[in-house]
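re: ur question from earlier - yeah i can do the single chain one, its not a big deal. heres the input i used so u can compare w yours
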Amino acid sequence: MPALPDLLELLEARGRRVSVERIAIEPRSFESPEALEGFVRRQLWIDPAGPKEKRFQKALDSLAVQTADGWTLEGRSAGPVGIVTWAPR
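and the output i got, formated as C-alpha cells:
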C-alpha cells in the first residue's frame, strides 16, 4: 500500500494503537499470456484502441516470461506488504 505511512499517521492521530507486520509476497503468476496482458492492462488503464497500445504491446512482448508457475513479468521480485491491525475503541 503506497499510502501505508499516511494510514498509520491517521490511525495514531485518532488514538489507535497500531501494529504493523511486514511480509514479502511473491509476484503473481497467470495461466496464460492473455491473462497476464489483461491484468497489466487494467493496472495501467491502457485502452486497446488508444494511442498507448503499440508501446504497451512492445513492452509486454519484451517483459512477459513463462515460468514453472505460469506467466509473469521478467525482473519482478518479492514485494513488501504491510499488515496493519488495531483495536476499536
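Residues 29 and 69 are 6 Å apart (CA to CA). not sure if urs matches, ping me
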